[in-house]
Amino acid sequence: MSLGKEGPYVHIATCIGNVACRLFAKFNDNDGKRREVLSASASSGVAVAFGSPLGGVLFGLEEVSYYFPPKTLFRTFFCCIAAALGLKFLNPYGTSKIVLFEVRYITDWRVFELFWFGFLGFAGGLLGALFIKASKFWATTFRRIPTIKKYPIVEVILVALITGLTSFWNRYTRLPVAELLAELASPCTQGSAGMTGLCPAAEDIPSVIWYLFMAFVIKAILTIITFGIKVPAGIYVPSMVVGGLMGRMVGHTVQYLVYRFPNSWAFGYCTNHSNGSIEECITPGVYALVAAGATMCGVTRLTITLAVILFELTGSLDHVLPFSLAILIAKWTADAVEPYSIYDLLTDMNSYPFLDNKASPVFDSELGDIVPRLRIDKLIDVTISPYVRASELRTKLNQLQSAGELDGGLPIVRDKILIGLIPVPDLEFALDKLETPDEETMCLLSTSSHPHHHSWPDTNRNLHASYDSAMLADDEESVSENSVTETADLTPFIDPAPVALDIHSPMDLVYQCFVKLGLRYVCVVSDGEYRGMVHKKTFVRYVRTCEKRS
Which of 187, 256, 282, 509 has its CB surrounded by the most CB atoms within 10 Å? Predict the structure, then answer.
């Protein structure tokens, strides 16, 4: 199938980093430290997928991390080098290379080829942008069919069947994507390209171009319908393969032009200095790799990272300029046709609460404009008693989960003052560990003594009219008389100092807090009194609404 391996590699590496963080309290108890480890882990996944340790470091810096301090840069570099060394010693491909499609070019490029490299950059950027549009169309039409939406395995079976039926008849579509990319990028003087029909005689070039064109069309369509199915997959290598097929066609076309017009002023250098081999002047493998990088840039919008990855794959300083030129033109072209990268498209379509740290939106509002109405079912009031029934906590937990706030929290207030917060995952964990039924357990949520109050001040009486003070008083009395079978101490799960901002805080400050600190929610206070909570999903919806208006 037209799927890449770098996505699962990054995912597995990040999972290993997450598990490793749990072994050390320094990282397990500090979200900032954990994110640094996860950044290094994701970078090592790219280093393994492409055999590119420097490209992995830049991938973590350019694409993954919100915050990348200098010490994290060195640790990520160390992690990527260790991953590449491990791959070298294990030799999983049996070729003594750290990546399957590593290539080496001996001949240098000519000045007249810059035009073709620029054309490949334009074509690759356009192809990547059109791929994004086609993927969006496919996802909003075919995947919205009720059967496909309810049973995604049906789509996997259909795509696998279509892939087998259409790919079997063409050698280049039948090969795995990594092997195909290796053949497309390899020069005729090394590797298996000389035995695969990619090094034809001059008079046979048109038939090879036609064969590659059929493979290009089939592979492009299969990549569009395959990306996004419910299997672990990456998009880097498939997009590079589609671009590589296009680049190989252009390379052979230039070869054929040299053959047909040997006395042209543009090709004079080739005919005068050639030793009889047509590839002495034009190397189609270079064109394939240039177009592969340009197409991948159009899809992912990676720039510096991609240039370094291509440089490390070829191991030659001679071709850094063609790669960089094609990537620059591809980036400009793709941004002009489709402003979203494939990551941005998926984030927007799935409504993920992601904020781009590279963006700088302009706001003219304050935090109080988006604070939801304060609801008693979204907080824990310990004004009357520090004990709360586990059944009541379970009800509040279920309401938050049904609202999609799986990473939210329940603020704990006393006399309208915020005294702590218990995150939803921690609350669920604590309630699941209770040995008795929820109805028979009272949970301690505050350890400080406080005089009893019967209700909130009259100014907020309408807000808490549904609050059953009599029940809480009975609960407290029952706890004191030991009439309940069990009590549970949940204070270890409470965050005593949640991040809180004033209700009049400017929205730019809120944006920076979510982006730079990686917060999932922000508590809102006014004159020290709790006024509500803004979840990251709510804030992201507000930001997108502002972007659409502008």
Answer: 282
- pLDDT at residue number 280: 66
CA-wise closest residue to 149 among 136, 160, 137, 140 = 140
Cα–Cα distance between 352 and 350 in angstroms, integer? 6
For the record, the structure tokens of 109 come out as 């490029």
pLDDT digits (tens, 9 = 90+) for 192-204: 444 567 888 778 8
Give all strands (DSSP E) within 287-386, no chain letters. Answer: 380-381
What H or E segment, with its residue span, contains residue 412? strand 409-414
- 8 A C-beta contact, residue 416 and residue 394: no
The pLDDT assigned to 470 comes to 39
Reading the block at residue 260, the tokens are: 């047909």
* CB of 306 closer than 8 Å to CB of 327: yes
Residue 246 has a pLDDT of 94
Q: What are the two backbone dihedrals, phi and then psi, of residue 512, each rounded to the nearest 5 degrees?
A: -65, -35
Quick one: which of 266, 280, 104, 319 has its CA closest to 202?
Answer: 280
Q: Which of 357, 362, 430 shows the shortest CA–CA distance to 393? A: 430
Distance of alpha carbon 58 from alpha carbon 312, whole angstroms = 13
Residues 376, 381, 386, CA angle at the centre, nearest 5°?
155
Give the pLDDT confidence score for residue 451 in this predicted structure. Answer: 45
Residue at token pair 């029934």: 389
Contacting residues for 220 by C-beta, under 8 A, at least 6 apart = 127, 131, 242
Return the pLDDT at 522: 92
User: Residue 88 belongs to what H/E stretch?
Assistant: helix 70-90
The CB density around residue 238, as the number of other CB atoms within 10 Å, is 28
Q: Which of 300, 302, 177 is nearest to 241 (CA)?
A: 177
Q: 418 near 409, Cβ under 8 Å? A: no
| Ranges of the chain whose pLDDT falls below 50 | 190-194, 450-484
Q: Give residue for tokens 């730079």.
A: 516
